TrEMBL record:
Subcellular localization: Nucleus
Domain Helicase C-terminal: from-to ranges: 405-556
SMART domains named in the record: DEXDc (SM00487), HELICc (SM00490)
ATP-binding among keywords: yes
Keyword line: ATP-binding, DNA-binding, Helicase, Hydrolase, Nucleotide-binding, Nucleus, Repeat
Record's compositionally biased regions (Low complexity): 593-604
Protein name, as recorded: TATA-binding protein-associated factor mot1
Organism the protein comes from: Candida tropicalis (strain ATCC MYA-3404 / T1)
Residue stretches making up the Helicase ATP-binding domain: 50-223
InterPro entries: Helicase_ATP-bd, Helicase_C-like, Mot1, Mot1_ATP-bd, P-loop_NTPase, SNF2-like_sf, SNF2/RAD54-like_C, SNF2_N
Cellular component terms per the entry's GO annotation: nucleus
Amino acid sequence: MPQELLEGRDRERDFIQQMMDPTKIKPFDLPVTIKATLRKYQQEGVNWLAFLNKYHLHGILCDDMGLGKTLQTICIMSSDHHIRAEKFAETGSAEYRRLPSLVICPPSLTGHWEQELNQYAPFMKVLVYAGNPSIRAPLRSKIPDVDVVVTSYDVARNDVEHVTLQDYNYCVLDEGHIIKNAGSKLSKSVKRVRAEHRLILSGTPIQNNVLELWSLFDFLMPGFLGTEKVFHEKFAKPIAASRNSKTSSKEQEAGALALESLHKQVLPFMLRRLKEDVLSDLPPKIIQDYYCELSDLQRKLYKDFAKSQKESIKSEVQGSEKEGKTHVFQALQYMRKLCNHPSLVMSPQHPKYPEINKFLVSRNSSLDDIEHAPKLLSLKNLLLECGIGTQDSDYNKSTKKKNQQLISAEGVISQHRALIFCQLKDMLDMVENDLLRKYLPSVTFMRLDGSTDPRDRQSIVRKFNEDPSIDVLLLTTKVGGLGLNLTGADTVIFVEHDWNPMNDLQAMDRAHRLGQKKVVNVYRLITKDTLEEKIMGLQKFKMNIASTIVNQQNAGLQSMDTNQLLDLFDVDDSAKIEDTVKDENGTNGGDGSSSAAGASGAHGNIPDDIAGGLTGKAAGAVGELGDLWDESQYEEEYNLDNFIKTLK
């Protein structure tokens, strides 16, 4: 065999060996100076990225949250820019002409990327393409002359005609699972970007079903997994069918084979490392459930509403699918808000408002009184137990000022610092105004939500991490749950919960990540004997999506039968749930029981037989609700104010 063919064969064998076994990938020496010391697993990650780069392949870096995906990406991106510049200087070839790289991320992370690039690779010229249209317009002419353009998904979608005029070296999608819906305008816009190298970063690449994986690879390597229709028939359909409890052994086998085949096909292009495997010095994360009772007012409203809705739900789900789905979403949202605070649903438009208001006035009370919102009381007690804030019986302004001056003078710093997550901005307002300002004036806090200018978000994060005198950071899960480094906190409290457990896992890992020196305690405030407990009791907080590449496919609302839906509106007044909120020692879950990192609080693995009073069918149905709870879907399509007006 000619020497040239032998050498070609050896190169091909070498390539296949590296592609199938990442441990065989050759070390990559950084040609630039990065101002950071890479850990062993991070260097291996850079080696893998360099392998993809060399062979013009594209992939997903799906390391566990907090392992430094940004740093690894900066290493390969800056290295390749340097190598291209050298080759262009040598050859003058247009193949190596100067091209900027494009990083697309959630708006809360644009400042984070700018800071990380300036910190680790200050020789890279960065342009943050953000702000309103009048601010962005003059920035467009600068894009060809910088090394990295950082922008948000919204801007990339809105300015797609301008963004796609430029060719790029790297196109990096941070939190890339955002493009999981292949039919969305956002996904289609991002896929129009032309780049030499494409990379997705995501700690949770698959959240609901395997079709999401197709959309991600349609960005990376169009056609690699076939057309969407072919992918559905070959993989998604048999995998989904195998999950049905009535499936035959043949269908189960077909699903297992499809899953194995998909796993093997995408495995070379996905790199996943877990914190517990690579960070021996990372303190544990302990998740605990903290239970609270409904107030008398909440219980009355909750019971009356749940019982009144069962018949209308029954008739509507048997009628128009669209109307039935809308009504169920609105009803579940109503119950969810009521669990948080009665004033979130008891507006003047509510038919029971005059009756309830008259009742409260007769008792010298109002809807805003904290006694009607046990979650706020529980949050207050939890903060005090953590040593955050001081009990104070006098809430007038002069006392607040005196307390704040005293604390400032004595330089008191709490032993623990907390992140408090809410889904709803309205609920975050109540935590701030009805609890912290009114009852815990000594607590110092900052806030980060959708109304915070994206350009200011990173400075808020930096100030919170660097200033130990700030006790609390208030966040909405949507804004604060992705990508931010908040290791200044060692306590995470969820006042509300995202029913997709991966979103809550993302949020809690803002604190439990590289750089954290303390044990991270996570508390979930859960209202007993309600829909909230039924759903939260079934959340699978120990799921490891990337270990099998795909998550279980959620059937969603459309697949539930009438009995399953009606069961969501059952009211459990008995004590049968009590046994489900006790730990192995028989203590109440409200006191919190420790579990291993990543476990589901006092419930551990949450076996199916403790589903908080649900029947078997409904237990399975609620377990599949993960992808239904999307705040924008609620607020836009299923308007609650209009729904309340229809109540009788």
